[in-house]
Design goal:
By secondary structure, the chain is an all-alpha fold. Helices cover 64% and strands 2% of the residues. The termini are far apart. It binds Phenylacetyl coenzyme A (FAQ). The site of Phenylacetyl coenzyme A has 32 residues, from helix 2, helix 6 and helix 9.
Length: 332
């Protein structure tokens, strides 16, 4: 179910093993999906649908939790009390998103412990974006603006994903992500309108985060082994390339509005399409980061595992407290 092995871009193998399903049940399931009904935990579903959901939700949940690390590094270095309070709240929100998503995956029969174990042993994926370092305060602005911006673009359609618990988790997550995006853009706005040095810092952050943000949407549709089936099952409502294009169209004017330049010499407005044409993405870099070769991949996983181990006493104390309350309630 979990793997760090990425299907090579030229490999067109089926992403999930198909098992023979009862044709009548399958037809009823597909009719419900086609009618835009939500599928709920106790409903019958094909095994491949369940596996695809667990795979995507696990990747998503881990991204939220690992995503706390690059920003967490800056909480103690935020330039003012206000910025510190906002960043602290944002990082806590990301932890909450991870929890809603782990809970959604649990309704599909995969426990949080299993998922966390898969993450810590390198078998589960998380977004490539979090394997890039946060070098300056402007990176915190760029993450909120671009990374949360990309996350919202991807997650808004997921509010209508066909699996009920995932869709409902996304409604709340999207509300919080839009605050995150705005706080990031506000940081960028302040820096871009500040001293020449601050503006350079903002431009430098945009230069480094732009292309990795476009990679967040996943491989191009023709090399995405999961998209076609996931769109058929309405797990994904749109394809990787469609959402990536929308992100570019919305974000380029935002950069221009604050006097920053998107680092893409090929970027041009295409009047006929009503969209921007943009230059080629370095997919070799994407595949390398997915394989675990990101600049700070090892550091991220070390920090995650350490946090998990150091937090063991909290989990033990919470369990002991719950057991004590249950014991008392039973005695009464
Ligand atoms: N990084 O066939 P597809 C956030 C993998 S949340 C790593 O196209 P699919 C919040 C993919 O898993 C950000 N791996 O796959 C925040 C698959 O491998 P597998 C995360 C990637 O699932 C902000 C293989 O490549 N959001 O940022 C990536 O149909 C700030 C083939 O790809 C979500 O996860 C990647 N970028 O489409 C937190 C949203 N892209 O599993 C803190 C939900 C692809 O077969 C601070 N997920 N892969 O071994 C999705 O919508 C989808 O899973 C996609 C990929 C669109 C990411």
């Amino acid at each position: 179910m979990y793997t760090t092995e990425l299907k090579d871009k030229n490999q067109k193998s089926a992403p999930v093993t198909t098992v023979a399903e009862d044709p009548a049940k399958l037809a009823a399931f597909e009719a419900r999906v086609a009618a835009d009904d939500f599928i709920e935990p106790k409903d019958w579903m094909p095994e491949a649908y369940r596996k695809t959901l667990v795979r995507q939700i696990s990747q998503h949940a881990h991204s939220e939790v690992v995503g706390m690390l690059p920003e967490g590094n800056w909480i103690t270095r935020a330039p003012s009390l206000r910025r510190k309070a906002v960043l602290l709240a944002k990082v806590q929100d990301e932890g909450g998103h991870g929890l809603y998503l782990y809970a959604a995956a649990e309704t599909l029969g995969t426990s949080r412990d299993e998922m966390i174990e898969a993450l810590h042993t390198g078998r589960a994926k998380y977004s490539t974006i979090f394997n890039y370092p946060t070098l300056t305060w402007a990176d915190i602005g760029a993450i909120g603006w671009l990374v949360d911006g990309a996350a919202i673009m991807n997650q808004v359609p997921l509010q209508r994903t066909s699996y009920g618990p995932y869709a409902r988790a996304m409604v709340r997550i999207c509300k919080e992500e839009s605050f995150h995006q705005r706080q990031g853009y506000e940081i960028m706005m302040a820096l871009a309108g500040g001293s020449p040095e601050q503006k350079r810092m903002a431009q430098n952050a945009l230069d480094r985060w732009w292309w990795p943000s476009l990679m967040m949407f996943g491989p191009p549709d023709e090399n995405s082994p999961n998209t076609a089936q996931s769109v058929r099952w309405r797990i994904k409502r749109e394809t990787n390339d469609e959402i990536r294009q929308r992100f570019v169209d919305v974000t380029v004017p935002q950069a221009e509005a604050i006097g920053l330049k998107v680092p893409d010499p090929a970027l041009t407005w295409n009047e006929a399409r009503g969209s921007y044409d943009f230059g080629p993405i370095d997919w070799e870099e994407f595949y390398a980061v997915v394989r675990g070769e990101g600049l700070v991949a090892k550091e991220r996983m070390k920090a995650r595992v350490e946090a998990w181990e150091k937090g063991a006493w909290v989990r033990e104390a919470a369990n002991a407290h719950a057991a004590k309350r249950a014991h008392r309630a039973a005695a009464e």
